[in-house]
Amino acid sequence: MSLFADLLSTIFDRRAGAAPRLRRDPRALPELVTELLEARSETVAATLARHVLQRYDGMSGEEKLAAFHGLAALNVDAEAVRGALAAYEVEPSGRSYRAFMAAAEPPRAELLRRLNMVPGATERLVRMRADLLRQGRGEPELEALDEDFRHLFKSWFNRGFLVLRPISWESPAHVLEKIIAYEAVHAIQSWDDLRRRLAPPDRRCFAFFHPAMPDEPLIFVEVALTRGVPGSIQALLEEERVPLEERSADTAVFYSISNCQPGLAGISFGNSLIKQVASDLASTLPGLKTFVTLSPIPGLVGWLEEQGVSYDPADGKRMTQLAAHYLLTAKRGDGRPRDPVARFHLGNGALVHAVHAGAIPRRTACGSRAGRWSTTSTIWRRWSNITTALPRAAR
Amino acid sequence: MSLFADLLSTIFDRRAGAAPRLRRDPRALPELVTELLEARSETVAATLARHVLQRYDGMSGEEKLAAFHGLAALNVDAEAVRGALAAYEVEPSGRSYRAFMAAAEPPRAELLRRLNMVPGATERLVRMRADLLRQGRGEPELEALDEDFRHLFKSWFNRGFLVLRPISWESPAHVLEKIIAYEAVHAIQSWDDLRRRLAPPDRRCFAFFHPAMPDEPLIFVEVALTRGVPGSIQALLEEERVPLEERSADTAVFYSISNCQPGLAGISFGNSLIKQVASDLASTLPGLKTFVTLSPIPGLVGWLEEQGVSYDPADGKRMTQLAAHYLLTAKRGDGRPRDPVARFHLGNGALVHAVHAGAIPRRTACGSRAGRWSTTSTIWRRWSNITTALPRAAR
Amino acid sequence: MSLFADLLSTIFDRRAGAAPRLRRDPRALPELVTELLEARSETVAATLARHVLQRYDGMSGEEKLAAFHGLAALNVDAEAVRGALAAYEVEPSGRSYRAFMAAAEPPRAELLRRLNMVPGATERLVRMRADLLRQGRGEPELEALDEDFRHLFKSWFNRGFLVLRPISWESPAHVLEKIIAYEAVHAIQSWDDLRRRLAPPDRRCFAFFHPAMPDEPLIFVEVALTRGVPGSIQALLEEERVPLEERSADTAVFYSISNCQPGLAGISFGNSLIKQVASDLASTLPGLKTFVTLSPIPGLVGWLEEQGVSYDPADGKRMTQLAAHYLLTAKRGDGRPRDPVARFHLGNGALVHAVHAGAIPRRTACGSRAGRWSTTSTIWRRWSNITTALPRAAR
Amino acid sequence: MSLFADLLSTIFDRRAGAAPRLRRDPRALPELVTELLEARSETVAATLARHVLQRYDGMSGEEKLAAFHGLAALNVDAEAVRGALAAYEVEPSGRSYRAFMAAAEPPRAELLRRLNMVPGATERLVRMRADLLRQGRGEPELEALDEDFRHLFKSWFNRGFLVLRPISWESPAHVLEKIIAYEAVHAIQSWDDLRRRLAPPDRRCFAFFHPAMPDEPLIFVEVALTRGVPGSIQALLEEERVPLEERSADTAVFYSISNCQPGLAGISFGNSLIKQVASDLASTLPGLKTFVTLSPIPGLVGWLEEQGVSYDPADGKRMTQLAAHYLLTAKRGDGRPRDPVARFHLGNGALVHAVHAGAIPRRTACGSRAGRWSTTSTIWRRWSNITTALPRAAR
Q: Which of A70, B13, B208, B390 could form a disulfide with B20 if both were Cys (CB 3.0 to 4.6 A apart)?
């Protein structure tokens, strides 16, 4: 009954005003995992889950990799799936269906759900997947494990569970420092720079949070309220500018959107965030008539090369025409736009409004962040912008 | 683009200070469902989900039953499962595994997740399952659908996402009136009765909530702080009693625990709730040395009959001995206690402390609730109590 | 240094999770009061203040009366005032002015401020004045003491410190039960009656709170949203009525306003409350065009008697005409309306809109509350209503 | 009725989602002030108060000075005081006492209370007094006005109305930037410096707030949790240090306390703050046994000079002895310690624990702040420290 004793010791510890500590369980990790998967009492399971997570946190990168391979081995049993499926076909019932479901889901999926019983575990599991993506890159045997993470997180981080919160100069500093760290598009240089993006009456920022990770933004978008659609990002971020009174604004520019959690890669929040922010802004500030994004065109240079055209920043006019052509006509095999940013916005009901040459500065500022996520680092090699408009007239 | 227009109209409506309304979409429900399952844009999907939920809410009981049969038909395709499984076996990869997972999960499961994109949908889906359990009782074709609900809710209502909140006389009235309505063990007769259970310094109540349903308790437990273990529930609920000063208490009696959501049947919260409440109380009131429950013994009468003994309330002493014998020795095939309440508490580390004859009054007060959930209605046919103790000494 | 020890013992007690207790100080109350008035250390003063308040709370009505006379004796010293005033006239400076101020304020005023150092003291001082008003009625020597209370409370409960909060069915039960208890105009019969006034979409309630007494409403107003100006209060309070959708309302009827704190008699909150509620409602529900009160006419019957007219409820038409005449033409010596309710509303910019015979039911329901405050009990002897309108057109 | 129209226009403005604006009232300020003092309707008074405050905010320094002289002229009328006092002596009653109180208080005091009816006015009035202290320095005619401000603020900022809040790295950035700005003892160099003082587990910070100025700390104290009493402030503020686990600490060092509001000069919060923080820490962390301050000895150098001793930083030992002698034996005329810091701490029950030579660094860091308040700028010319201990054993 040592686990029960452990559990109760946490009660004692917490009374002393501190986070509970666990005495190290002498058993090996696989043994703990097996016991956790078999535990019928929630209380016992919760204590085992704490042990497993604590063990994981103390591991080196290599040990984690080994643990991931151990997890990957808790795979579906194909024979069992076939058997349960056949039984369900012969006699479909709740019971036979449940048996099939149990067989079709690998034990590691149930394990992840059980680990989440521990307070604060959701954030730790998201970091665990970030470890997996980093440590396990290029190891095909770990891909299925990652799929289980992704599938679980897609369910847990369902839109219905996300909470939209404004981020302002009145937000807690420990959240704001994460905004500084996570801004992936136009790096925030300092707390003064941050204040310039949050405090003026013509600036807004919103983030999605999950209630189980209240200190960790999942994604955030920065918005500038303007009169008319601006031609470049530089004007928006200038240090010495006179802020607009919010009631005079007719346009909301979504000039930067950043994912914060590498461990949530592949789970898309951007569309929902833009939609809800646009909706909230429109209801608070009825003077807003136009909602635009200022976005890079990441696929342009590659496409130009394929066309045998070399990119010439000096020839802004021709580049702009080519960019417009590319955006509107270049398609993937499935008929959707070839450019990923165009796909995101146009697939969501937006229209191409204008193409600006040189509207996003060279990548200097963001150098330090480059390569953090391979999927976004390419964005910074581009030279021009798409302005996608959600014109109110069309509604 | 009518859905997009719909979406934007909601923005407009909300500005007018009201809940958004949807114009009725002329298409039939199955068509909407199909489109929702195929929608690639989150924005479009969210609007379709609102239509589907609104359509459902307007249905009669019969129409709902028909809709459930429609949902049930969105079943797994056994051939596809076998094919995807074989492909994964031949060439295991993230892609082939994902294809297998997609095949092994029926489309209705994904549908439920997509419906949850709508604000407030979680609560509506929980009610939908309550409808299913009521309307669909005895229809075996609907059992698998219910399994999908249960599996999804088990993931969504994972312990890690639940929030413990004290319920007190300072809690919002709209939550308190649900406590009155949901109390399943010792009915609360009036607001005055409720105040007697919440306001005195020697009374506590705690509930689990889910952040997406902040107005709906999932389960709650009522606790009395006492000196010594009380012999009956009546003494605890007396109208005219002098409350104990909380610092004088040495015992916490968990005298009632009630599930609130029929739609969450089969998802167990009780163990976690008792564990965390005991832990919190111990840390706040170090004088508490004993944690007990006062619970009925639902399986006793049936077991007595099997033994050829007829239940005789007049012979308290013998009944008590038989009850103790039953609790400690009668086992199921799997070696665990036969009595469900004993199974719950003893499996969780508790010890039998005492058996009291007549400690829970006859079922009169609870008559109106009888039959609400078949699983608990039997509890009220019993006559005596088990006191299970979580003795601190054992820690 | 026993007071210091006391102080530190409170630290110890609080750690034990309980409200701090004071060991009884053996000195007599006047001695404690004197020491409190002379204490230079805030820490010492705070502990003395706790002793004084605790001593007061344990007193019988007679002892309290004696204590009030003791307080009253801490009066201004006329000679000292004259001396300090003369000194200030001779040599006006900050120092001489401060000396004058100190002389012109009786020590009991400073005492009340020092008592307020104790957490929760504000509410206790308000109750102390309620005791004074009740126990000290008819004792002229206590009137000056009451003036000091009133002057202090006028400063402390300044409009700038009050917080407007909506009261709804989601408000804490311990606040709602005070709403039930304090409703002085149209008694609330039960929690169901309360729910009918708070929960429907066409009902609102707002109260002023002071941050130092967050559980105690100071005054609250009940509002019905209607189409058109209603003719009687009965229609508003009917049990079986179909609520209006809030967006359809064009009129806000302030049908009841109640002061909650007898200890704050003479400090007027009603005007500010109505003004701010009207302002908030107008901004949330732009469809509201008319703001009216349904008020009794307390002075009518007395005035009729003076005119030699006896009140005849059967002759509604004539009574209505006379009431209108009375409201618009009967003045006090200072030229303001003779009727107190008319004075309140008309002085605040309202117009008489209509006079309804029999719009407020006989006093039966409120009988139990009658006489709680002599100033309002007379209201209930009247038979008809004034509807005062704040027409938007006039703005 | 233009004021009433103004009032209602604010309703309209607020609906547009913006702070209300006032059309400029054409009357001169004195006329507005007179009308405000005479207004019988709260609604009218509130609008006039907004006009007066808005007018003030737009003034230059010189105009403000003139306005202060105007305010100062709203003085007590000595003849009226004498008359009312005599009347009260002849026939003491509530009415005659109220008349005396009204006469003894200058109209400007009532004016300040009426200005506070405007939302957010408290903070503006505190700034107004800060203006008065700065602009009016050396003008004796303004001293009495300042006394009225002080007297009013002493009542409004009574201990019973203050709220203690922890300041942490999770506090809102707009409050934290004020902590950076207001730190008067050991300047905070940057946000990183601030994080070092707030985020580690062995650091604490607490501030008093007033509910009517929730964004403005009034005073704050910084605390370090240590093992044993540290010998110097430098060790506490080192950049590269390993934080102590909070449960290992046995000592709480109050190493810096800063007043934030120049407009609240002369209203003392420090004692109450230290007392309550010590109390809260002791109850949260029972391991804490010693509570000390590290304070400068501002009066030492002056006293040495009077003794004919010149201060010699090289001779630490002798300076320390002299300092101890000075602290314990040098008294003012009233028998209390001559050193102001010693007076503060010893008067509050503390004991001198040790004298450290060179424990507070030279004033370089704080240079930029020097002279902000003349009362504290001298602190920085001193060289050594007093450690005052509140030993738990003595309780």
A: B13
